[in-house]
Amino acid sequence: MKHIVLLLGMVCMLVFFGCGQGEKADQSAQGESKEAVEAVTDISDEAADLVKEKAGTAVETVEEQTDEAVEGVKENIDTVSEDMKEKAASAVETVTK
Fold this sequence. Notes:
This protein is an all-alpha fold and 97 residues long. The chain has one helix at 2-96.
């Protein structure tokens, strides 16, 4: 009988001791989970900032290229206009001779 009581006491101690360890493991896992979420959030924020920066740079580049293209078209229009005026004047001169 003493052996059974002693054995039951040891089993109870193991069960209660094991339960306490489970809580500590759960708390540790929750802490690690929170840290992982914070790390992912930080990485996501950094990635979002980088995307915003690169998008801003791309927009600026496109605006600059658009401005340059518009200026080039204006110059070509002016050149073509001058050429057409000269050819028209030459044609009028040829016809009136």
